[in-house]
Design brief:
Number of strands: 11
Strand order of the largest sheet: 8-7-9-10-11
Shape: globular
Helix content: 40-55%
Distance between the termini: 40 Å
Radius of gyration: 21 Å
Order of helices and strands: HHEEEHEHEHEHEHEHEHHEHEHHHH
């Protein structure tokens, strides 16, 4: 979708695609169309599918790309169910590929029925992976194909603050959704003290260049003492239906060695994948006393050093995208590549370095 969608929320799937191309032999299929026009045509096409229930013939790009050689695996990432119709712009993908897997990111269980026409297109895939653990069963009932949960990942090498250990010059980094009460308190703190608070100041964030934006974001996270991280869409219960899930922010914050503050999801997936002490320090959604919370934590330097180091080590050993790709290959019976093995070995080396250093520079 990288030639069609340029919102900042698209960074992590594009990052995953690029990494796959470095540790496996892969070709990228890139539907091309006017991004501004695609917003209209894709919206219109999805509206037609919702009213008719039939989506297999609608191509919102009007262009077609042909798969003209044999492949072991076809892998597609759909961040939203509204992306699925773009698959109709790729001709021959099922006939030319021995196995097919797709990754479906954000589909909330309560909305699955609204996307029935789009989701039925996925019945051609051998397996469907989902990033939202509590949506697996609902999607499975529609597509009637094996559906599995897979957690988000991160480029743990690029986010890793080792071996350079850049100074933690940002006191608090808040990106995306936020509590107005806490935000106001942090603004006041930044006005009153020598305190560096970074936050979003514009709406509808679109990128000129995904790689440059991701690089900037990665460097900001690595230089942040604290990162605000909350369960996915924590302030939009009407959209989630009360479903609690982990978002990519947890994986990114941990990989960058930040101390994460926020509300964690009450779900098994989070408990399993962030099972170390203080992975996220729970604070109230509207923490007007955030200055006191930070002051109390700053008075515990050994605890902070342990948190940052543990976050980095667990990310290196468990949450890099290479581990997600290995799981996907194992699912269809494909072997790990030598490049994947080399990356995993390097991740272990970095984890040993982080463990030996023990403390991240934070002043």
């Amino acid at each position: 979708m990288r030639n069609l969608k340029f919102h900042v929320s698209r960074c992590y799937p594009y990052e995953f695609e690029d990494l796959i191309s470095t540790f496996d032999t892969a070709d990228l299929i890139l539907p091309t169309f006017s991004p501004n026009l695609f917003k209209f045509t894709n919206g219109l096409a999805n509206s037609v599918v919702k009213s008719t229930g039939i989506g297999k013939f609608l191509n919102p790009t009007s262009n077609q790309i042909s798969v003209d050689r044999e492949y072991e695996l076809f892998f597609a990432i759909f961040q939203s169910a509204s992306d699925i119709l773009s698959l109709n712009s790729v001709k021959g993908w099922r006939k030319k590929c021995h196995k097919a897997i797709c990754l479906l990111d954000e589909v909330w269980a309560k909305d699955v029925g609204n996307w029935k026409g789009q989701l039925e297109i996925l019945s051609k895939f051998d397996y469907i992976f989902l990033n939202l653990s509590l949506s697996v069963q609902a999607v499975n009932q529609i597509v009637q194909r094996p559906c599995r949960f897979i957690p988000f990942g991160v480029d743990a090498v690029k986010f890793c603050p080792f071996p350079l250990q850049p100074k933690k010059s940002i006191d608090v980094y808040s990106i995306g959704r936020r509590s107005l009460v806490m935000h106001t308190a942090l603004l006041e703190l930044a006005e009153q003290k020598n305190f560096f608070y970074i936050y979003d100041t514009i709406k509808d964030l679109y990128m000129h260049d995904y790689k440059q934006h991701r690089s900037l974001y990665t460097n900001l996270v690595k230089r942040s003492r604290y990162l605000i991280a909350n369960k996915a869409k924590f302030d939009l219960v009407n959209q989630t239906g009360g479903q609690e899930e982990s978002g990519p922010r947890f994986f990114e914050g941990a990989a960058g060695g930040a101390v994460m503050l926020g509300i964690t999801p009450n779900c098994e997936a989070y408990s399993k994948h962030f099972d170390w002490l203080d992975a996220v320090i729970q604070i109230p959604y509207e923490a007007a006393n955030i200055a006191d919370i930070i002051a109390d934590l700053d008075a515990q330097p050994e605890r902070l050093a342990r948190i940052r180091t543990n976050n980095v080590i667990n990310s290196l050993l468990r949450h890099d995208w290479v581990y997600r790709w290995r799981e996907i290959l194992e699912t269809v019976g494909l072997e790990q590549t030598p490049e994947m093995a080399s990356r995993e070995a390097y991740l272990k080396d970095l984890a040993e370095l982080a463990s030996a250093e023990g403390t991240l520079v934070h002043s």
